[in-house]
Amino acid sequence: MRALREHQMSADDTFLKRVWPGVKRAVLWLIAQDGDKDGVLEGAQHNTLDTDWYGPVAWLSGLYLAALQAAAALADEMRDRTFAQKCRDILQRGQKRMVAELFNGEYFYNKVDARHLDAVNSGTGCEVDQVMGQSWAFQVGLPRVLPEKETRTALRSLWRYNFSPDVGPYRERNKPGRWYAVAGEAGLLMCTFPRKDWDYEKAKGGAGKGAWAAMYFNECMNGFEYQAAGHMIWEGMAQEGLAVARAVHDRYHAAKRNPWNEVECGDHYARSMASYGVFLAACGFEYSGPKGLIGFAPRLTPEDFRAPFTVAEGWGTYSQKAEGKGRRSVIAMKWGQLKVRELALAVAKAPVAGVTVAHAGRAVAAAHRLEDGRLTVTLSEPVLVTPGQNLEIIVS
After folding, report:
1. Cα 382 to Cα 342: distance, rounded to the nearest angstrom
2. Are 219 and 361 found together in one domain?
3. Treating both helix axes as pointing N-terminal to C-terminal, what angle do 222-234 and 275-283 enclose, rounded to 10 degrees?
4. Which of 120, 149, 131 is nearest to 58 (CA)?
5. Are residues 363 and 279 in the same domain?
6. What's the rounded Cα separation, in Å, for the pair 262 and 243?
7. Which residue from 70, 116, 204, 281 has the fewest beta carbons nearer than 10 Å?
8. Which CATH number fits the domain that encloses residue 363?
9. What pLDDT, on the 0 to 100 scale, is given for residue 324?
């Protein structure tokens, strides 16, 4: 997924051609860990929580599915149709199994491997990253990895079970872990245990050498919170997502802590940069430099929206404003340049009567199609937007 992101943020396919052999080898190695090729990993799964987890783990297999989706998209661009189909076949099997076996009606969970009861595992706990694969997929414009209904239900469960306007009472009863959020502060907890069949003591896996890592479940870690917050916004839960992001912001108010150093495992911890994902979600930003595609689907005040964006060769501002029964959108470059062949915009009404496009004041011939609230505008020929030469789209 990171390879796909960097490819999209490039002006052409030079980067992809250079890294594709290594990307493909990495994905093939990952597929090899899925012995029965059913789209769900079950063996030793080392992860950022510092120990090996075992059994079908929702958040790790969800990331696996998203990686397969990204690999298939890259394979399409490299015209490697056989590999693309291999990835999609496993993806489809995994999507079905994830819902059938790892969704309990409220959220996605993990099945513990009876052969590794000594390993840390959140089990039937409500874990913060359970649908992270779908969050990643949104950021790079991929088709859905996890189904909309179940994913939104899982996010609502995170809001219900894991977010607290005051984490103090919870931490008073669950003391292991670091105090990134203290009494009186809000936060989204890493994992809670709303079901009677699993709890923190079981999640530790006994007294094994990795038991210490279970302390993470009781913490509020900024990068994980931002990931979930951004995903909530992508899925239409803007108020909840903004509340989670605001909780982190308030904890690092300058009157209390350094607002430029959102500590996680150490000072200036990189995972807190997941906050940028919240911004992308609020903008509904979509971009591919090699394809000449740029898109916006604002989740906040779409009737009057303005935000900056960065692209392969520059940066600028996007704005849209309702005008009568229509809307005017403007892409204004502030530095560098932007090649545009296709635009993707969210529209609230259907049908669309007409679309007009102008570049630097001159009309540009374009075709458009509307599908599920997404308006795709294809220019008759690419345009190069530079400072002072805005691209304007009027939808009526």
Report:
1. 8
2. no
3. 10
4. 131
5. no
6. 17
7. 116
8. 2.60.40.1180
9. 86
Crossing angle between the packed helical segments 58-77 and 81-102, to the nearest 10 degrees: 160
d(CA 251, CA 276): 18
224/331 same-domain check: no
Whether residue 342 sits in one domain with residue 243: no
Residue where a domain stops, chosen among 262, 283, 304: 283
Write the DSSP assignment of 221-257 as a string of letters: -HHHHHHHHHHHHHTT-HHHHHHHHHHHHHHT-TTTS
| Lookup: tokens for 17 | 């051609």
* pLDDT tens digits, one per residue of 204-261: 998 888 999 999 999 999 999 999 999 999 999 999 999 999 999 999 999 999 999 9
My answer on whether 297 and 201 are in the same domain is no
**Reported confidence tier of residue 351, pLDDT bands at 50, 70, 90:** confident
User: Cα–Cα distance between 153 and 107 in angstroms, integer?
Assistant: 7
In degrees and rounded to multiples of 5, residue 209 shows phi and psi of -65, -20
Q: Are 353 and 369 in contact (CB under 8 A)?
A: no
- For residue 95, the enclosing domain spans 2-283
Instruction: Select from 268, 283, 298 the last residue of a domain.
Output: 283
Q: What is the pLDDT of residues 306-341, one digit of tens each?
A: 999 999 999 999 999 999 889 999 999 999 999 999
Question: Which residue type is seen at 330?
Answer: V
**Pair of tokens at residue 344:** 């993707």
CB 46 within 8 A of CB 329: no
- Both 159 and 250 in one domain: the answer is yes
Query: What is d(CA 26, CA 168) in angstroms, rounded to the nearest whole number?
Result: 43
Cα distance between residue 302 and residue 316, in whole Å: 18
Q: How many residues does the chain have?
A: 396
Taken in order 82, 85, 90, 91, the sign of the CA dihedral is: positive
Contact 94, 134 (CB under 8 A): no
Give the angle 218-221-225 at the CA atoms, nearest 5°: 110
Which H or E run contains 380?
Answer: strand 374-385
Give the pTM: 0.96
- Asked whether residue 121 falls in the same domain as residue 194, the answer is yes
